[in-house]
Amino acid sequence: MFDVAAYYTAARSGDPVDVGGLLAHLRGFRRVVLWGASFLGQAVARQLGAHGIAVTAFWDLRAGELKRVQDLEVLEPFTGGFDPADTLVLLCIGNTILQPSLSRKLAQAGYHHLLGDHVFMGLGCKASKARGLDPEACLRSMTCRAIYCERLSRIVEHRARQQRPEPLAGPPIFLQSLTVVVNQVCSLKCKFCTSYMNAYAPAERRNVPTARILEDIERCFQAVDSVGSVTVMGGEPFLHPDLGEVVQALLRQPNCGLISISTSGTCAFSPRQLALLRDPRVNVSFSNYLDSLGEGQRERFQQNVAQVLTAGVPHTVGVPMPAWIIPSTLHDRHRTEAELVRKKQDCWPRTNQLKNGKLHPCDLANSVYHLHLADHPGDYVDVAQAGGVADLRRRIRDYLDAPFYRTCGHCHGCGDLTSHAGEQGFQDFLPGPDVAVPE
User: Fold this and answer.
1) What does the domain layout of the chain look like in residue ranges?
2) Measured between alpha carbons, how far is 101 from 108 in angstroms, rounded to an integer?
3) Strands (E), 319-407
4) Which of 42, 58, 299, 416 could anchor a disulfide with 74, C-beta 3.0 to 4.6 Å?
């Protein structure tokens, strides 16, 4: 029997993968369906074809628009009349936040399934500990999501071990990803923003001071062994006047992997900012919310893409996203300690967030703190107040190893899909305890 967990571990390791067991497993099904007809799904289809494995069809919410991809029919998810007993679905949705929810839907419907990104790690990924990273593939092919790629993290970890002559004291700290949040101001008003930008009072919609950001970066990277990938975001990062200086500070860290700047592309980009982003390890990632934007915003988006291209800055433009997921409301549900432990264990990989002197485990924890809803000291590291490297390193390790975070008691998980990604409007995520909220 194919050991899925063992294969996933090997794929994430950064070493070459023996794919014989995977291929035999794939050939054991009458049909192979790829859920997701975009970059990852198409790349997986090509790899399967190279190994003589036929794909039956794609599933995609954009079936009516796409019709056929790679000469294969594109169907709405869970259609086609395929018998779940002899059908294997490869979940090729690059948005890792959606993966747990979609995996549950497949299991409930009785389908066998594998994670498509892990299938690609074994069959198609050229990056390895021996060869190093390939920014063109990891950041700009659009096949992978570098921020969630543990294989990438292991490769950066391996390089950091080789480059550091003397290991830091204590057990190593290898962060898979880090999000550097530079502001809490945005050019959009997304109804279902996972950073809850609409909830900030007007007086608090501001940039984090540049000196604070630069010191936080320097201190954190001195205290950890490596960081696989860094996302610079807000709010809208291009609204920070010193975005370029922030990226340059990250590039100076020898234990930093790849850097992505997440933008909606709906505000003005300055030539000075762009000049400091021209590096192969950097990628400007345009999120595509065009279906939810006004005409002026769409024009600004296209102007910015052209400006980045002219400036020679590496970048990608996302495919139109048919849906977002509704984030959790933020009030405290006062869960038991056992429930909190389980919540942390079951959570998807946390993208540690560095913001204004604090290191938080996730977007929700960052928001609960900075919206002044609660202050749970064990849920973050006070980077600004820590002592030297040894003290900060100890604090980060204790924070990472904590059995639970109190902020997990505020989270009920993600809800249903929205009708449009980037839908503009207002949704109240700050209800009082007397307001009924679905669990």
Assistant:
1) 4-123, 135-410
2) 11
3) 353-355, 358-360, 381-382
4) 58
345, 413 in Cβ contact below 8 A?
Answer: no
pLDDT tens readout for residues 337-358: 999 999 998 886 668 999 999 9
Tokens, residue 323: 């849906």
pTM of the predicted model, to two decimals? Answer: 0.88
CA end-to-end distance (rounded Å), the chain = 37
Residue 353, phi then psi, degrees to nearest 5: -115, 125
The residue count of the chain comes to 439
Q: Is the pLDDT of residue 170 over 70?
A: yes
Q: Which tens digits make up the pLDDT trace of 97-141?
A: 678 888 999 999 999 999 999 999 999 998 999 999 989 888 888
* pLDDT one-digit tens code per residue, 278-323: 999 999 999 999 999 999 999 999 999 999 999 999 999 988 877 7
Fold that domain 4-123 belongs to in CATH: Rossmann fold (3.40.50)
For the chain, the farthest-separated pair of C-alpha atoms sits apart, in whole angstroms, at 62
* Closest by Cα among 146, 147, 214 to 182: 214
Got the DSSP string for 351-363? --EEETTEEESSH
What is the C-alpha separation between 251 and 273, in angstroms, rounded?
15
CA gap 208, 200 in Å, rounded: 14
Write the burial class of residue 349 (CB in 10 Å: 0-12 exposed, 13-18 middle, 19+ buried). Answer: middle
> What is the pLDDT at residue 439?
41
d(CA 121, CA 243): 32
User: Which architecture does CATH list for 135-410?
Assistant: Alpha-Beta Barrel (3.20)
Give residue 202's Cα distance to chain centre.
28
Distance CA 90, CA 23 (A): 13
* Alpha carbon of residue 248 to chain centroid: 22
Distance CA 168, CA 226 (A): 11
Q: Residue 432 — pLDDT band, cuts 50, 70, 90?
A: low
Taking 60 as the threshold, does the pLDDT of residue 387 lie above it? yes
Question: What are phi and psi for residue 75, nearest 5 degrees?
Answer: -115, 160
Give the model's confidence band at 377: pLDDT under 50 very low, under 70 low, under 90 confident, else very high.
very high
| 334: its two tokens | 């006062």
Q: Which two tokens stand for residue 108?
A: 């409930």
Phi, psi of 332 (to 5 degrees): -75, 125
